[in-house]
Design goal:
single chain, globular, binds adenosine-5'-triphosphate, Myosin_TH1, microfilament motor activity, actin-binding, ATP-binding
Length: 945
């Protein structure tokens, strides 16, 4: 499968940055379309991932896939969510800092799916212990519970999140997930009592009715048929084929037991869900005085039982309002309309607060008890933000206003942290930069949230002021105070042409993602979100402990008016942005390909609109012109100083000069970097990754233990390509006959390999080496000499001084590895082509003098996977493993069982040699063959290409 995936992903470009010179929208769309039609739904813009909803199950999320992406630099494999997740994870582990992954896009674009898949990725690939298994399961299973209570079928999405969710996954110092914490944002409570045409209420209602056994339904006083419940039939939604409520019910029930819910919790929770359904069926009629009375007492009895509320008090609370007059409390009867209002208000309040209780309860079960108990509180986090997408309905109300405001804020964050921050930084650092224009939506955020002058302030003012405030008076205030704003229109303010499309009760905002017309009706009521005091009292005294937790008696004593819904939401978004700003970001931009949820359909018009408003073109332009990576000189030098003798172990001058020496040494080309006032800017990720790999290799040499784990990982989880016997000879020929020039990043590794190999070799040189005639040493040896470690070694020019005549044959490896080994088509390298020392050493040892290829390797075998530094020498007929000046092993090609490599650029090759005993009896069964592993340095890997 991986092979297929990699082979297929040659469609278009995997990173928009690689598009031909011009960055037109048409070229962008073409690439996206081309890839989408091949089911390649992911494409990068630098490190940002663009994802197009496939609307079909693709074989992209298997455990094998997860393991493939684990620990691999993201440019090495086709774009994927896992690459983004893995990158954030690895940086977190290396740098002990916090991260977040912002997943954005409109409703139905695939945000929730992406966040679930990332969570699964961490659950599968992160190290864990038996104790931590529970944390892992809880993290995973919190999802179906939250979705059951917080998601619903809408016209745009059969599983639309009707709340915002930010989840921190906490990791310990070993990178194991040890806990989590969820923040939820503004659940769409109005859905409990009303659904638009074609939509459903929250999933849990249907799951309970479809899935619960008879006894439970009977205990709750419910019938199985959803059509019997007024709160479930508002949207007249027919059967939804993509939803299996019965199955989902089972998952939710199981999840409850894992996330620490007791049977009592569950009983009370479903008591509340059932009460909401009963509330919806309460009908009122007028008595002779025009006061509301409950038509049929059946429902209220059930509610009284399930919520543990006194029947007559509950009855009275639903039909009366308690008014405080001086020190007296007076009960005033409600008319029928107000009674319905009170009923719906209590249903919404119960559901909304129970949802918050649920999140808190889940948080309790996700809390990092392991770290707490062991005193290890030091943890890093990766936050996943999956929040409701930008929404435009036929009629947009207060909820859409909040949702779209939230999306404005997130867009603003993205701009602040990418487009603006990046360009500001270039300017600050004195990097030459042609500013790239982009639309900054701060102006719209201000319009909504500015103190005193913004829409939320104006709305609050209307809600809180004495006198008769109405939705219309709110609209008038808006016209008065923000009427001249470029992003605000009402019918009165509109020109002749637009006027027709705006009703008298509407106002229109020109959002970054497009125009949305909001109907002001209901704004005041929803923003106030008032619950009559006597209803609150009933709930505070409920015997249902969840309800009692949700409605605290202390609330009744608090005479201060609670904050309005919009202000609460604004404040919670402000804290969310603060949380996010303190972390390192990764971005996934989800795109919805069509309105019909159809696989394979790429609606150009719809997608172009999203590309535009998501700011993808601007992002691409900044990325193309900009730098992938930047680091303070001090930090850069600190990390990589071991790669250069001049900076290792200490550099005493200014950091910038140390960095200059360092990058000169590793061979950065001028176009690969720029030096700013305080930072180095690296243009391409691959330059950085090459440096990082060299650093890792150096680390490995300093501490061989680390290589063991790399090996174990490679062997157990990466995809291996087994090369069969019949192509083996061709492989060897290709292996030894490549002849393309070194590419710059490989040259670094080669030089590094040489350097360390030679450093070691100096103490083991065979005597006769010193008798040879000598040429000028290559620069790498000068360095060694310069560092005082190799002064007595000379540079040989013996009979084997030129490899070039031996490197004339065709590269035949392509026949074997084409399309299988990632990075295959990149340019080749020739380790040791420009050096002849190793060749010479080997020539001393292998008298036939017909060797073709030499490279230092780290060899592992089955005896404890011990890492050993060796030379691998290939002749026309055999491979030799050489330790310093001694031949340790000779393997004739004719006896080889096979050879395997992973399909990554990890430089690992496994040579399968027959078991000695079995060889004697001629048994070539693969299962019996011994494995001699050779983890080649990066430079050698490139030979395979
Ligand atoms: N990677 C994917 N593979 C297969 N199907 C997908 C994928 N991503 C999304 N879908 C399909 O699209 C539907 C909508 O996706 P999702 O619920 O993630 O959207 P969303 O952006 O979170 O929407 P909302 O803002 O309404 O919550 C999913 O229920 C699923 O059917």
């Amino acid at each position: 499968m991986e092979g297929a995936l990699i082979a297929r992903d040659k469609v278009g470009v995997q990173d928009f940055v690689l598009l031909d010179s011009h960055t037109s929208e048409a070229a962008f769309l073409n690439n996206l379309r081309k890839r989408y039609q091949e089911n390649l739904i992911y494409t990068y813009i630098g490190s940002l991932l663009v994802s197009v909803n496939p609307y079909q199950e693709l074989d992209l999320y298997t455990v094998t896939q997860m393991q493939l992406y684990r620990g691999v630099n993201f440019f090495e494999l086709p774009p994927h969510l896992y690459a983004i997740a893995d990158n954030a994870y690895r940086v977190m582990c290396n740098e002990y800092n916090n991260h977040f992954i912002l997943i954005s896009g409109e409703s139905g674009a695939g945000k929730t799916e992406a966040s679930k898949k990332i969570l699964q990725y961490y659950a599968v690939t992160c190290p864990t212990t038996e104790q931590l298994q529970t944390v892992r399961d809880r993290l995973l299973l919190s999802n179906p519970v939250l979705e059951a209570f917080g998601n619903a079928k809408t016209l745009r999405n059969d599983n639309s999140s009707r709340f915002g969710k930010y989840m921190d996954i906490q990791f310990d110092f070993k990178g194991a997930p040890v806990g989590g914490h969820i923040l939820s944002y503004l659940i769409e409570k109005s859905r409990v009592v009303h659904q638009n045409h074609g939509e459903r209420n929250f999933h849990i209602f249907y799951q309970l009715l479809e899935g619960a056994d008879k006894d439970l339904l009977c205990w709750l006083g419910l019938e199985r048929n959803p059509q019997k419940y007024m709160y479930l039939i508002q949207g007249r939604c027919a059967k939804v084929f993509s939803i299996n409520d019965k199955n989902d019910w089972k998952i939710v029930r199981k999840a409850f037991s894992i996330i620490d819910f007791t049977e009592k919790d569950i009983e009370q929770l479903f008591g509340i869900v059932a009460s909401v359904l009963h509330l919806g069926n309460i009908q009122f009629e007028e008595d002779s005085n025009g006061h509301a009375i409950i038509r049929d007492g059946t429902q209220i009895k059930w509610i009284s039982k399930l919520l543990g509320a006194h029947l007559s008090i509950l009855q009275e609370a639903l039909t009366h309002r308690k008014i405080e007059a001086r020190s007296e409390e007076v009960l005033s009867p409600l008319n029928v309309d107000l009674a319905f209002y009170a009923r719906d208000a209590v249903a919404k309040a119960i559901y909304g607060r129970t949802f918050t209780w649920l999140v808190n309860k889940i948080n309790g079960s996700l809390a990092n008890k392991v770290g707490f108990l062991s005193g290890i509180l030091n943890k890093t986090v990766i936050g996943l933000l999956d929040i409701y997408g930008f929404e435009v309905l036929d009629t947009n109300s207060f909820e859409q206003f909040c949702i779209n405001y939230c999306n404005e804020k997130l867009q603003q964050l993205l701009i602040e942290m990418t487009l603006k921050a990046e360009q500001d930084e270039y300017e600050l650092e004195g990097i030459e930069w042609e500013p790239i224009p982009y639309f900054n939506n701060k102006i719209i955020c201000d319009l909504v949230e500015q103190k005193h002058k913004g829409i939320i302030s104006i709305l609050d003012e209307e809600c809180l002021r004495p006198g008769e405030a109405t939705d219309l008076s709110f609209l008038e205030k808006l016209e008065e105070k923000v009427g001249d704003h470029a992003h605000f229109v009402t019918r009165k303010l509109a020109d002749q042409k637009t006027r027709k499309s705006i009703d008298w009760v509407d106002f229109r905002l020109l959002h970054y993602a497009g125009e949305v017309t909001y109907c002001a009706v209901g704004f005041l009521e929803k923003n106030n979100d008032l619950l009559y005091r006597n209803l609150k009292e009933v709930l505070c005294n409920s015997k249902n402990s969840i309800i009692r937790d949700c409605f605290l008696l202390s609330e009744l004593d608090n005479r201060r008016r609670p904050e309005t819904v919009a202000t609460q939401f604004k404040n919670s978004l402000t804290s969310l942005i603060e949380i996010l700003m303190s972390k390192e970001p990764s971005y996934i931009r989800c795109i919805k390909p069509n309105e019909n949820k159809e696989p394979g359909k790429f609606d150009d018009f719809l997608i172009r609109h999203q590309v535009k408003y998501l700011g993808l073109m601007e992002h691409l332009r900044v990325r193309r012109a900009g730098f992938a990576y930047r680091r303070k000189y001090e930090l850069f030098l600190q990390r990589y100083k071991s790669l250069c003798p001049a900076t290792w172990p200490h550099w005493h001058g200014p950091a910038v000069e140390g960095v200059q020496r360092l990058i000169k040494h590793i061979g950065y080309k001028p176009e690969e970097y720029k030096l700013g006032r305080t930072k180095i800017f690296i243009r391409f990720p691959k330059t950085l990754f090459a440096t990082e790999d060299a650093f890792e290799y150096r680390k490995h040499l300093l501490s061989k233990g680390s290589a063991l784990s790399v090996w174990a990982l490679g062997w157990s989880s990466l995809g291996w390509w087994k090369v069969s016997q019949d192509v083996f000879c061709r492989f060897i020929n290709g292996f030894i006959n490549r002849k393309k020039p070194l590419c710059p990043e490989n040259r670094d590794f080669v030089r590094l390999s040489q350097y360390y190999y030679l450093m070691k070799l100096r103490d083991h040189l065979p005597k006769n080496v010193l008798d040879q005639s000598w040429l000028q040493p290559p620069s790498i040896l000068e360095e060694v000499r310069g560092s005082g470690g190799f002064g007595e070694v000379w540079w040989p020019c013996g009979k084997g001084c030129s490899l070039s005549h031996q490197l004339q044959q065709k590269v035949v490896t392509s026949a074997i590895f084409n399309g299988k080994k990632e990075g295959y088509l990149q340019s080749l390298s020739q380790p040791f082509l420009d050096t002849r020392l190793s060749e010479f050493i080997v020539e001393m040892l292998i008298p036939t003098r017909c060797f073709q290829y030499v490279t230092p390797v780290i060899k592992y075998d089955r005896n404890g996977f011990k890492a050993r530094e060796r030379l691998l020498v290939l002749t026309q007929s055999s491979a030799y493993v050489v330790e310093m000046a001694k031949i340790k092993q000779k393997i004739e090609y004719s006896t080889l069982k096979g050879i395997s490599t992973s399909n990554l650029s990890d430089g690992i090759v496994v040579i399968h040699v027959p078991d000695d005993n079995k060889q004697k009896v001629g048994n070539w069964d693969g299962a019996l063959s011994e494995v001699m592993g050779l983890m080649l340095p990066m430079s050698s890997y490139k030979l395979l290409e």
